[in-house]
Each structure stands twice: as C-alpha cells, then as structure tokens.
Design goal:
This protein is α/β, with parallel strands linked by helices. Helix content is 42%, strand content 14%. The relative contact order is 0.16.
C-alpha cells in the first residue's frame, strides 16, 4: 500500500504527530492516512488532538432555522429544496425577538455558540438588515455567532462581519469530482468564492462536508484535501452523516460504514490539527459507541438540541448522559475563542 501511494508512511506519521498545520497536503498523503490500520490511525489522531485541545472538552453549539424551506437550490440531500416534495413548507424569516428568545434558551442549556440558518441561495440585501440585527442581539448575549445563509458577495460578507458575526458556515459537501452528482444549481467554484469573501471580510470559516452521499473513499479524500489546502484551514470543520429524508433523491442510498465515518473524522483531525472538528448531522442515528469512537478520533464539537434545521438530533438529556459516561465537559466560550485567536497568530 505504501509503495503504491508513493508515500513514506513512517515519515508521514512522524510529521503528523508533531501536530503542525500544513497547507500543502497531497491526495496521496491523505489516502495513506485513510489506509492506516484503524488503531494506528486513532492513536495518531489522539496524539494530534491532545497537542492542541483538552481531550475531554467538547464545544457545544445550537443551530436554529431562522428561515425554513423554499430554497431554489437542488442539493440532493436537502429536505428544504423547493425541487423536492419532502413535506417541508416555505416559511418567512423569523422575527428578532423569537430568535433572541431561542438564543437565551440555548445559552441557559450550556451552548457557547449560536448558529442561524436560512434556506436561501443567497440572502437578499433587504433581508440583511434583519439578519444583522439578530447577529448583534445574539452577540450581546455573550454567545459566539455563526450563520449559514447561502452564497455571499464581498459586500454582504462585510456587512455581516460589521454586525458582529464570528463564523460563517458554507460547506463544500463532497469532492470536486463528485460534486456535480449532488448539486447542479451552483458550482464548487461558487462555494470557494463565498469562502474567500468570508475570509476577506475578517470572519472565521465553518466548512466541512457530508458522508453518505453515495460517494467513494476517494471522494472523502478529495473533500478533505480541498479543505486542507485552503490558504487558512476552516476554524470549524463539520463532518455530517447523511440523514436520509423521504422525497429527496438520496433517499435509499446505501448507508455509510461507521468505521469509515470514524476514519474520516480522524483524518480531518490530523490534517487540520487546530480546527474544531464537529460531529454534526446524523448523531440521532448513531450509537453511543460510534459517537464515543468519533470523540476518540478527535471530534470536539457538537450541536445541542433536538432539531438541526429540519432533522432530528439527540435531545439534551441523552447528550448529558453520554457526556457523563465519557467524562466529557462542555467547552467554555472563552476557551473556544482564545484557542481560535491563538490559532490565528
């Protein structure tokens, strides 16, 4: 395997264990990590993780859909797309007070970051005033702020940053080669351009992908390679397991292997050592044992609450019980922010 990949695996292991960020990863190197024996891969991921993070702290975030349904994009996994009959109806943008009430509840339940999602191709300028008021209000509550609103131009990104937005989420979803099988209404380049606009505006980036779209291992390698060679690694890397929804084209797709999912988490941790790796959508269908393996592989962020936009998530009591079994603690907001600042230096 090592010879066919033209990678000196011992040298690669030694370099990875040092835990220093790199932006010149090759696909062959990432493939070599995926091919490691499972125990060796998790050991290496733990070494890297402990270099940069407390292994028993997990960042807790809450995600609220502030504008649900009616999206003109045709992302084949998404129940909010107007192209598919999934039973999700288009709703108007939430009002400010309802959003702030949800943020207060999230803070009371231990969340340190509050994320707001809107089912848009891109926000209209007339909506940005209301969005900016939400961001400022959530920020005033002492929470880290995050939004996912679709594609952004440079001016929109600047306005969001001026309102106090800390993070912007815009996932690449899968590899450049497989992307066209999942989405036709926007290109990979469109997504990269939005990420560049977010960076140029001075915001942090939340960007990851989905496992279980019908992709192959080489596509997971391609996704992580695309993230790892960005000029700056995303500060937050969500790794989602597809939640299949009736009415979407991906309903009935073969479910991903749990060990392969853990491998994806571990490789993400190794090649983006200073990033928060979020165990994101799909936890509702994961066993406690699979989630524990993901934390062991370097995941250190989750969403709290029984809904992720329109799909189910474990309720707070289940997560509290799991944290207690594993000896995990929520990461304080100040700790997460300090580490982000240190990583930027």
């Amino acid at each position: 395997m090592t010879q066919s990949l033209a990678v000196d695996i011992d040298t690669l292991r030694t370099a990875c264990a040092a835990g220093q960020p790199r932006h010149d990863w090759t696909r062959a190197e990432i493939a070599a990590l995926f091919a490691l024996p499972f125990n060796d891969l998790l050991f290496l991921a733990q070494q890297v993780h402990r270099t940069h993070f407390d292994p028993n702290e997990v960042q807790v975030s809450t995600l609220l859909s502030i504008k649900t349904g009616g999206c003109p994009e045709d992302c084949a996994y998404c129940p909010q797309s107007a192209h598919f009959d999934t039973g999700v109806t288009a709703e108007k943008l939430m009002d400010l007070e309802a959003t702030l009430a949800a943020a207060r509840a999230a803070r009371a339940n231990g969340a340190s970051r509050f994320c707001m999602g809107a089912a848009w191709r891109s926000p209209k300028d007339r909506d940005l005033d209301r969005i900016c008021a939400m961001i400022s209000g959530v920020k005033a509550l002492g929470l880290e702020t995050c939004a996912t609103l679709g594609m952004l131009d440079a001016d929109q990104a600047r306005r969001l940053r001026e309102a106090g937005l800390d993070y912007y989420n815009h996932n690449l979803d899968t590899s450049p080669e497989y992307y066209g099988e999942i989405i036709s209404t926007r290109t990979y380049r469109d997504r990269l351009d939005t990420l560049a606009n977010v960076r140029d505006a001075g915001m942090k980036v939340c960007c990851g992908g989905i496992v279980g779209l019908g992709e192959q291992t080489e596509d997971r390698i391609g996704l992580l390679h695309s993230l790892a060679i960005l000029p700056a690694h995303p500060e937050s890397v969500p790794i989602n397991m597809l939640v299949q929804v009736e009415g979407t084209p991906l309903q009935g797709t073969e479910k991903p292997d749990g060990i392969e999912f853990v491998r994806t988490i571990a490789v993400a941790r190794i090649i983006m050592p200073e990033s928060m790796v979020r165990l994101s959508a799909g936890r509702e269908q994961m066993s406690e044992e699979l989630q524990a393996l993901c934390f062991l592989a370097g995941a250190n962020s989750i969403f709290l609450g029984d809904r992720l936009l329109t799909t189910k998530n474990p309720d707070r009591d289940r997560d509290a019980a799991l944290f207690a079994k594993l000896g995990l603690e929520p990461m304080p907001y100040a700790t997460a922010e300090q580490r982000s600042a240190e990583a930027a230096e």
